[in-house]
Amino acid sequence: xxxxxxxxxxGTTMSLVSDLAGVAAGTIYHYFQGKDELIQxxxxxxxxxxxQVTTEALSSGATRRERFLNTxxxxxxxxxxxxxxxxxxxQYLNSPYNSGQxxxxxxxxLFRFLEEGIASREIRSIKPELLLMLVYGGVxxxxxxxxxxxxxxxxxxxxxxxxALWTGISTxxxxxxxxxxxxxxxxx
Amino acid sequence: xxxxxxxxxxGTTMSLVSDLAGVAAGTIYHYFQGKDELIQxxxxxxxxxxxQVTTEALSSGATRRERFLNTxxxxxxxxxxxxxxxxxxxQYLNSPYNSGQxxxxxxxxLFRFLEEGIASREIRSIKPELLLMLVYGGVxxxxxxxxxxxxxxxxxxxxxxxxALWTGISTxxxxxxxxxxxxxxxxx
DNA sequence: GCGGACCGAATGAACGTTCAGTCTAACGAA
DNA sequence: TTCGTTAGACTGAACGTTCATTCGGTCCGC
Lengths: 188, 188
Hints:
66% helix, DNA-binding, homodimer, mainly alpha
Protein backbone atom coordinates (compact mmCIF):
# COMPACT_ATOMS: atom_id res chain seq x y z
CA UNK A 1 0.00 0.00 0.00
CA UNK A 2 2.76 2.41 0.93
CA UNK A 3 4.54 1.76 -2.34
CA UNK A 4 1.41 2.20 -4.39
CA UNK A 5 0.61 5.43 -2.61
CA UNK A 6 3.89 7.03 -3.51
CA UNK A 7 4.65 5.40 -6.84
CA UNK A 8 1.35 4.30 -8.33
CA UNK A 9 0.46 0.88 -9.68
CA UNK A 10 2.94 1.10 -12.48
CA GLY A 11 5.82 2.36 -10.40
CA THR A 12 5.35 -0.36 -7.84
CA THR A 13 7.47 -3.22 -9.11
CA MET A 14 7.38 -6.70 -7.73
CA SER A 15 11.01 -6.48 -6.69
CA LEU A 16 10.26 -3.32 -4.72
CA VAL A 17 7.47 -5.18 -2.99
CA SER A 18 9.64 -8.17 -2.21
CA ASP A 19 12.45 -5.95 -0.91
CA LEU A 20 10.13 -4.08 1.42
CA ALA A 21 8.59 -7.34 2.56
CA GLY A 22 12.04 -8.72 3.25
CA VAL A 23 11.64 -11.74 0.99
CA ALA A 24 12.94 -12.79 -2.39
CA ALA A 25 11.08 -11.95 -5.55
CA GLY A 26 10.00 -15.51 -6.12
CA THR A 27 8.40 -15.87 -2.71
CA ILE A 28 5.52 -13.61 -3.60
CA TYR A 29 4.51 -16.16 -6.22
CA HIS A 30 3.95 -18.79 -3.56
CA TYR A 31 1.14 -16.69 -2.18
CA PHE A 32 -0.24 -14.85 -5.18
CA GLN A 33 -0.53 -15.89 -8.79
CA GLY A 34 0.90 -12.60 -9.93
CA LYS A 35 0.77 -8.86 -9.55
CA ASP A 36 -2.87 -8.64 -10.50
CA GLU A 37 -3.99 -11.08 -7.88
CA LEU A 38 -1.88 -9.30 -5.30
CA ILE A 39 -3.67 -6.06 -6.04
CA GLN A 40 -7.09 -7.66 -6.03
CA UNK A 41 -6.27 -9.14 -2.66
CA UNK A 42 -5.24 -5.73 -1.36
CA UNK A 43 -8.54 -4.32 -2.48
CA UNK A 44 -10.56 -7.07 -0.89
CA UNK A 45 -8.65 -6.76 2.35
CA UNK A 46 -9.17 -3.04 2.63
CA UNK A 47 -12.80 -3.15 1.58
CA UNK A 48 -13.31 -5.45 4.48
CA UNK A 49 -11.59 -3.06 6.86
CA UNK A 50 -13.64 -0.14 5.63
CA UNK A 51 -16.82 -2.10 5.97
CA GLN A 52 -16.01 -2.94 9.57
CA VAL A 53 -15.35 0.68 10.42
CA THR A 54 -18.61 1.72 8.79
CA THR A 55 -20.69 -0.91 10.51
CA GLU A 56 -19.28 -0.01 13.87
CA ALA A 57 -19.78 3.71 13.38
CA LEU A 58 -23.34 3.31 12.16
CA SER A 59 -24.35 1.59 15.34
CA SER A 60 -23.35 4.42 17.66
CA GLY A 61 -25.85 7.20 18.11
CA ALA A 62 -29.44 7.64 19.15
CA THR A 63 -30.96 9.45 16.21
CA ARG A 64 -30.32 8.81 12.56
CA ARG A 65 -28.78 12.25 12.35
CA GLU A 66 -26.27 11.41 15.06
CA ARG A 67 -25.46 8.11 13.47
CA PHE A 68 -24.86 9.85 10.19
CA LEU A 69 -22.58 12.45 11.68
CA ASN A 70 -20.67 9.87 13.67
CA THR A 71 -20.10 7.80 10.60
CA UNK A 72 -18.95 10.78 8.61
CA UNK A 73 -16.33 11.62 11.20
CA UNK A 74 -15.30 8.05 11.70
CA UNK A 75 -14.75 7.47 8.00
CA UNK A 76 -12.87 10.71 7.65
CA UNK A 77 -10.69 9.70 10.53
CA UNK A 78 -10.02 6.32 9.03
CA UNK A 79 -8.90 7.80 5.75
CA UNK A 80 -6.73 10.42 7.37
CA UNK A 81 -5.05 7.78 9.48
CA UNK A 82 -4.68 5.46 6.51
CA UNK A 83 -3.67 7.67 3.68
CA UNK A 84 -2.43 4.71 1.69
CA UNK A 85 -5.88 3.13 1.76
CA UNK A 86 -7.49 6.29 0.46
CA UNK A 87 -5.04 6.71 -2.38
CA UNK A 88 -5.17 3.06 -3.24
CA UNK A 89 -8.96 3.04 -3.45
CA UNK A 90 -9.13 6.13 -5.59
CA GLN A 91 -6.56 4.72 -7.95
CA TYR A 92 -8.02 1.27 -8.04
CA LEU A 93 -11.59 2.34 -8.62
CA ASN A 94 -10.61 4.40 -11.64
CA SER A 95 -8.21 1.90 -13.11
CA PRO A 96 -8.79 -0.91 -15.57
CA TYR A 97 -8.14 -3.37 -12.73
CA ASN A 98 -11.60 -2.55 -11.54
CA SER A 99 -13.56 -2.38 -14.78
CA GLY A 100 -16.43 -4.78 -14.81
CA GLN A 101 -16.45 -5.17 -11.06
CA UNK A 102 -19.88 -5.38 -9.48
CA UNK A 103 -19.71 -2.12 -7.47
CA UNK A 104 -19.44 -3.82 -4.12
CA UNK A 105 -20.18 -0.57 -2.37
CA UNK A 106 -23.89 -0.96 -2.87
CA UNK A 107 -23.90 -3.83 -0.49
CA UNK A 108 -22.31 -1.62 2.14
CA UNK A 109 -23.98 -0.97 5.50
CA LEU A 110 -24.03 2.72 4.72
CA PHE A 111 -26.16 2.02 1.68
CA ARG A 112 -28.68 0.17 3.79
CA PHE A 113 -28.61 2.94 6.34
CA LEU A 114 -29.58 5.43 3.66
CA GLU A 115 -32.30 3.18 2.29
CA GLU A 116 -33.78 2.78 5.74
CA GLY A 117 -33.68 6.52 6.25
CA ILE A 118 -35.59 7.01 3.05
CA ALA A 119 -38.13 4.38 4.03
CA SER A 120 -38.72 6.06 7.37
CA ARG A 121 -38.98 9.43 5.65
CA GLU A 122 -36.08 10.89 7.60
CA ILE A 123 -34.01 11.14 4.45
CA ARG A 124 -35.17 12.70 1.23
CA SER A 125 -36.34 10.33 -1.42
CA ILE A 126 -33.29 10.43 -3.66
CA LYS A 127 -31.75 7.43 -5.40
CA PRO A 128 -29.70 5.96 -2.58
CA GLU A 129 -26.86 5.16 -4.93
CA LEU A 130 -26.47 8.86 -5.55
CA LEU A 131 -26.62 9.66 -1.88
CA LEU A 132 -23.99 7.07 -1.15
CA MET A 133 -21.63 8.49 -3.73
CA LEU A 134 -22.23 11.97 -2.39
CA VAL A 135 -21.28 10.90 1.10
CA TYR A 136 -18.29 8.80 0.13
CA GLY A 137 -17.18 11.51 -2.26
CA GLY A 138 -17.46 14.14 0.42
CA VAL A 139 -15.57 12.15 3.00
CA UNK A 140 -12.71 11.25 0.73
CA UNK A 141 -12.54 14.75 -0.68
CA UNK A 142 -12.24 16.18 2.81
CA UNK A 143 -9.61 13.63 3.76
CA UNK A 144 -7.62 14.29 0.63
CA UNK A 145 -7.74 17.99 1.30
CA UNK A 146 -6.50 17.48 4.82
CA UNK A 147 -3.72 15.15 3.73
CA UNK A 148 -2.59 17.47 0.98
CA UNK A 149 -1.52 19.87 3.69
CA UNK A 150 -2.56 22.76 1.48
CA UNK A 151 -5.54 23.69 3.61
CA UNK A 152 -5.90 23.41 7.33
CA UNK A 153 -9.01 21.48 8.24
CA UNK A 154 -10.20 21.78 11.81
CA UNK A 155 -12.74 19.67 13.61
CA UNK A 156 -15.11 22.56 13.35
CA UNK A 157 -14.72 22.71 9.57
CA UNK A 158 -15.45 19.05 9.39
CA UNK A 159 -18.56 19.35 11.46
CA UNK A 160 -19.73 22.18 9.23
CA UNK A 161 -19.55 20.04 6.11
CA UNK A 162 -21.08 17.01 7.70
CA UNK A 163 -23.97 19.07 8.99
CA ALA A 164 -24.43 20.80 5.68
CA LEU A 165 -24.62 17.47 3.98
CA TRP A 166 -27.09 16.13 6.49
CA THR A 167 -29.21 19.25 6.13
CA GLY A 168 -29.33 18.71 2.41
CA ILE A 169 -30.02 15.04 2.62
CA SER A 170 -32.54 14.90 5.42
CA THR A 171 -36.18 15.86 5.25
CA UNK A 172 -36.17 17.73 8.52
CA UNK A 173 -36.25 21.49 8.77
CA UNK A 174 -33.16 23.04 10.32
CA UNK A 175 -32.84 21.87 13.95
CA UNK A 176 -35.16 23.71 16.32
CA UNK A 177 -32.55 24.79 18.80
CA UNK A 178 -29.29 26.59 18.08
CA UNK A 179 -31.01 28.62 15.43
CA UNK A 180 -30.10 31.86 17.17
CA UNK A 181 -27.55 34.08 15.53
CA UNK A 182 -25.13 32.97 18.27
CA UNK A 183 -21.86 33.65 16.57
CA UNK A 184 -20.47 30.32 15.51
CA UNK A 185 -17.31 29.60 17.40
CA UNK A 186 -14.52 29.02 14.97
CA UNK A 187 -11.83 28.08 17.47
CA UNK A 188 -10.39 24.59 17.53
CA UNK B 1 -7.67 10.14 -23.67
CA UNK B 2 -9.64 7.24 -25.11
CA UNK B 3 -6.69 4.93 -24.66
CA UNK B 4 -6.07 6.02 -21.10
CA UNK B 5 -9.72 5.58 -20.27
CA UNK B 6 -9.77 1.95 -21.31
CA UNK B 7 -6.22 0.90 -20.52
CA UNK B 8 -4.92 3.23 -17.83
CA UNK B 9 -1.67 5.17 -17.86
CA UNK B 10 0.45 2.09 -17.82
CA GLY B 11 -1.44 0.21 -20.47
CA THR B 12 -1.32 3.16 -22.83
CA THR B 13 1.90 2.68 -24.76
CA MET B 14 3.43 5.27 -26.99
CA SER B 15 3.09 3.02 -29.99
CA LEU B 16 -0.62 2.65 -29.32
CA VAL B 17 -0.86 6.43 -29.20
CA SER B 18 1.05 6.88 -32.42
CA ASP B 19 -1.01 4.21 -34.16
CA LEU B 20 -4.28 5.83 -33.17
CA ALA B 21 -2.93 9.21 -34.14
CA GLY B 22 -1.90 7.82 -37.51
CA VAL B 23 1.74 8.82 -37.18
CA ALA B 24 4.98 7.01 -36.53
CA ALA B 25 6.25 6.49 -33.02
CA GLY B 26 9.05 8.97 -33.45
CA THR B 27 6.76 11.77 -34.54
CA ILE B 28 5.33 12.20 -31.07
CA TYR B 29 8.78 13.19 -29.90
CA HIS B 30 8.80 16.17 -32.21
CA TYR B 31 5.94 17.63 -30.24
CA PHE B 32 6.46 16.33 -26.71
CA GLN B 33 9.60 15.56 -24.79
CA GLY B 34 8.22 12.23 -23.69
CA LYS B 35 5.25 10.41 -22.24
CA ASP B 36 5.20 12.48 -19.10
CA GLU B 37 5.01 15.76 -20.91
CA LEU B 38 2.29 14.38 -23.14
CA ILE B 39 0.21 13.53 -20.12
CA GLN B 40 0.83 16.86 -18.44
CA UNK B 41 -0.28 18.55 -21.65
CA UNK B 42 -3.43 16.47 -21.71
CA UNK B 43 -4.19 17.57 -18.20
CA UNK B 44 -3.59 21.22 -18.93
CA UNK B 45 -5.72 21.09 -22.06
CA UNK B 46 -8.68 19.50 -20.33
CA UNK B 47 -8.44 21.72 -17.27
CA UNK B 48 -8.82 24.60 -19.65
CA UNK B 49 -11.88 23.05 -21.25
CA UNK B 50 -13.47 22.38 -17.91
CA UNK B 51 -12.79 25.90 -16.78
CA GLN B 52 -14.49 27.31 -19.86
CA VAL B 53 -17.57 25.20 -19.30
CA THR B 54 -17.71 26.27 -15.68
CA THR B 55 -17.30 29.95 -16.42
CA GLU B 56 -20.00 29.86 -19.03
CA ALA B 57 -22.42 27.95 -16.82
CA LEU B 58 -21.86 30.22 -13.85
CA SER B 59 -22.94 33.25 -15.80
CA SER B 60 -26.37 31.95 -16.68
CA GLY B 61 -29.07 32.41 -14.10
CA ALA B 62 -30.65 35.19 -12.10
CA THR B 63 -30.21 34.03 -8.54
CA ARG B 64 -27.18 32.38 -7.04
CA ARG B 65 -29.27 29.29 -6.52
CA GLU B 66 -30.09 29.09 -10.20
CA ARG B 67 -26.51 29.66 -11.18
CA PHE B 68 -25.44 26.88 -8.87
CA LEU B 69 -27.98 24.42 -10.22
CA ASN B 70 -27.18 25.32 -13.81
CA THR B 71 -23.53 24.76 -13.21
CA UNK B 72 -24.15 21.45 -11.53
CA UNK B 73 -26.10 20.21 -14.50
CA UNK B 74 -23.71 21.62 -17.03
CA UNK B 75 -20.70 19.98 -15.40
CA UNK B 76 -22.51 16.70 -15.09
CA UNK B 77 -23.39 16.91 -18.75
CA UNK B 78 -19.84 17.67 -19.71
CA UNK B 79 -18.52 14.65 -17.87
CA UNK B 80 -21.16 12.34 -19.23
CA UNK B 81 -20.45 13.50 -22.74
CA UNK B 82 -16.70 13.26 -22.19
CA UNK B 83 -16.22 10.11 -20.23
CA UNK B 84 -12.56 10.00 -21.11
CA UNK B 85 -11.99 13.37 -19.47
CA UNK B 86 -13.65 12.24 -16.27
CA UNK B 87 -11.67 9.03 -16.05
CA UNK B 88 -8.47 10.76 -16.97
CA UNK B 89 -8.89 13.39 -14.27
CA UNK B 90 -9.69 10.90 -11.60
CA GLN B 91 -6.69 8.82 -12.51
CA TYR B 92 -4.36 11.74 -12.89
CA LEU B 93 -5.29 13.47 -9.67
CA ASN B 94 -4.58 10.34 -7.66
CA SER B 95 -1.40 9.38 -9.44
CA PRO B 96 2.19 10.32 -8.76
CA TYR B 97 2.12 12.42 -11.94
CA ASN B 98 0.19 14.96 -9.96
CA SER B 99 1.95 14.86 -6.60
CA GLY B 100 3.19 18.25 -5.58
CA GLN B 101 0.98 20.06 -8.06
CA UNK B 102 -0.47 23.33 -6.81
CA UNK B 103 -4.15 22.25 -6.79
CA UNK B 104 -5.13 24.42 -9.69
CA UNK B 105 -8.78 23.93 -8.88
CA UNK B 106 -8.70 26.62 -6.24
CA UNK B 107 -8.24 29.20 -8.89
CA UNK B 108 -11.37 27.97 -10.60
CA UNK B 109 -14.36 30.24 -11.21
CA LEU B 110 -16.49 27.90 -9.14
CA PHE B 111 -14.26 28.54 -6.17
CA ARG B 112 -14.74 32.27 -6.50
CA PHE B 113 -18.47 31.76 -6.92
CA LEU B 114 -18.58 29.96 -3.61
CA GLU B 115 -16.46 32.59 -1.88
CA GLU B 116 -18.74 35.32 -3.13
CA GLY B 117 -21.76 33.41 -1.93
CA ILE B 118 -20.25 33.16 1.50
CA ALA B 119 -19.40 36.84 1.54
CA SER B 120 -22.97 37.76 0.62
CA ARG B 121 -24.30 35.37 3.27
CA GLU B 122 -26.19 33.28 0.72
CA ILE B 123 -23.92 30.34 1.32
CA ARG B 124 -23.03 28.95 4.69
CA SER B 125 -19.73 29.95 6.10
CA ILE B 126 -17.80 26.76 5.42
CA LYS B 127 -14.23 26.58 4.17
CA PRO B 128 -14.77 27.11 0.46
CA GLU B 129 -12.15 24.51 -0.38
CA LEU B 130 -14.34 21.93 1.30
CA LEU B 131 -17.43 23.14 -0.49
CA LEU B 132 -15.64 22.98 -3.79
CA MET B 133 -14.55 19.41 -3.24
CA LEU B 134 -18.06 18.49 -2.18
CA VAL B 135 -19.52 19.88 -5.38
CA TYR B 136 -16.88 18.46 -7.69
CA GLY B 137 -17.03 15.17 -5.87
CA GLY B 138 -20.79 15.05 -6.18
CA VAL B 139 -20.80 15.87 -9.87
CA UNK B 140 -18.18 13.35 -10.81
CA UNK B 141 -19.72 10.72 -8.60
CA UNK B 142 -23.07 11.18 -10.30
CA UNK B 143 -21.48 11.10 -13.73
CA UNK B 144 -19.52 7.97 -12.92
CA UNK B 145 -22.66 6.31 -11.69
CA UNK B 146 -24.48 7.18 -14.86
CA UNK B 147 -21.65 6.01 -17.07
CA UNK B 148 -21.27 2.76 -15.20
CA UNK B 149 -24.66 1.80 -16.55
CA UNK B 150 -25.40 0.01 -13.31
CA UNK B 151 -27.96 2.55 -12.16
CA UNK B 152 -30.35 4.54 -14.27
CA UNK B 153 -30.04 8.23 -13.53
CA UNK B 154 -32.86 10.39 -14.75
CA UNK B 155 -32.95 14.16 -15.00
CA UNK B 156 -35.24 14.16 -12.03
CA UNK B 157 -32.73 12.20 -9.94
CA UNK B 158 -30.07 14.68 -10.88
CA UNK B 159 -32.19 17.62 -9.88
CA UNK B 160 -32.87 15.97 -6.57
CA UNK B 161 -29.20 15.70 -5.73
CA UNK B 162 -28.35 19.16 -6.92
CA UNK B 163 -31.13 20.64 -4.86
CA ALA B 164 -30.21 18.61 -1.83
CA LEU B 165 -26.69 19.88 -2.09
CA TRP B 166 -27.81 23.45 -2.48
CA THR B 167 -30.14 23.11 0.47
CA GLY B 168 -27.27 21.93 2.59
CA ILE B 169 -24.86 24.54 1.38
CA SER B 170 -27.06 27.60 1.31
CA THR B 171 -28.24 29.60 4.28
CA UNK B 172 -31.79 29.94 3.00
CA UNK B 173 -34.77 28.04 4.35
CA UNK B 174 -36.39 25.60 1.94
CA UNK B 175 -37.84 27.44 -1.11
CA UNK B 176 -41.29 28.93 -0.53
CA UNK B 177 -43.03 27.52 -3.56
CA UNK B 178 -43.12 23.96 -4.86
CA UNK B 179 -43.34 22.68 -1.34
CA UNK B 180 -46.59 20.86 -2.04
CA UNK B 181 -46.62 17.09 -1.80
CA UNK B 182 -47.04 16.85 -5.57
CA UNK B 183 -46.18 13.21 -6.05
CA UNK B 184 -42.71 13.12 -7.51
CA UNK B 185 -42.74 11.43 -10.90
CA UNK B 186 -40.23 8.63 -10.94
CA UNK B 187 -40.80 7.57 -14.51
CA UNK B 188 -38.17 8.08 -17.20
C1' DG C 1 18.72 22.83 -52.50
C1' DC C 2 17.23 23.85 -47.91
C1' DG C 3 14.65 22.87 -43.61
C1' DG C 4 11.63 20.86 -40.92
C1' DA C 5 8.09 17.36 -40.52
C1' DC C 6 7.91 12.66 -40.37
C1' DC C 7 9.29 7.76 -40.41
C1' DG C 8 10.19 3.20 -38.16
C1' DA C 9 13.70 -0.26 -37.21
C1' DA C 10 16.94 -0.54 -33.63
C1' DT C 11 18.34 -0.02 -28.77
C1' DG C 12 18.75 -0.74 -24.15
C1' DA C 13 16.62 -0.69 -19.84
C1' DA C 14 13.07 -2.37 -16.86
C1' DC C 15 9.82 -5.50 -15.51
C1' DG C 16 6.95 -9.69 -14.30
C1' DT C 17 7.63 -14.23 -13.93
C1' DT C 18 10.05 -18.77 -13.73
C1' DC C 19 12.56 -22.63 -11.93
C1' DA C 20 16.39 -25.35 -10.41
C1' DG C 21 17.99 -25.59 -6.30
C1' DT C 22 18.72 -24.63 -0.90
C1' DC C 23 17.16 -24.62 3.66
C1' DT C 24 14.30 -25.97 7.64
C1' DA C 25 11.26 -28.22 10.53
C1' DA C 26 8.70 -32.26 11.39
C1' DC C 27 8.41 -37.02 11.96
C1' DG C 28 9.15 -41.93 12.14
C1' DA C 29 12.34 -45.74 12.39
C1' DA C 30 16.26 -47.67 14.37
C1' DT D 1 18.55 -39.96 21.04
C1' DT D 2 20.03 -40.02 16.31
C1' DC D 3 19.60 -40.18 11.66
C1' DG D 4 17.16 -40.25 7.15
C1' DT D 5 13.47 -38.71 4.57
C1' DT D 6 10.36 -35.48 2.91
C1' DA D 7 7.39 -31.54 2.01
C1' DG D 8 7.13 -27.18 1.23
C1' DA D 9 8.73 -22.47 2.19
C1' DC D 10 11.99 -19.68 0.26
C1' DT D 11 15.79 -18.01 -2.87
C1' DG D 12 17.61 -15.09 -6.66
C1' DA D 13 19.87 -15.35 -11.11
C1' DA D 14 18.16 -15.78 -15.54
C1' DC D 15 14.61 -15.31 -19.18
C1' DG D 16 11.75 -13.34 -22.44
C1' DT D 17 8.93 -9.64 -23.28
C1' DT D 18 7.52 -5.06 -23.52
C1' DC D 19 8.24 -0.31 -23.81
C1' DA D 20 9.90 4.49 -24.14
C1' DT D 21 13.04 6.63 -26.64
C1' DT D 22 16.56 7.46 -30.36
C1' DC D 23 18.44 8.62 -34.76
C1' DG D 24 19.89 8.03 -39.46
C1' DG D 25 17.33 8.72 -43.10
C1' DT D 26 13.23 10.04 -46.40
C1' DC D 27 9.84 13.17 -48.09
C1' DC D 28 7.89 17.50 -49.52
C1' DG D 29 6.88 22.40 -49.94
C1' DC D 30 9.09 26.49 -50.86
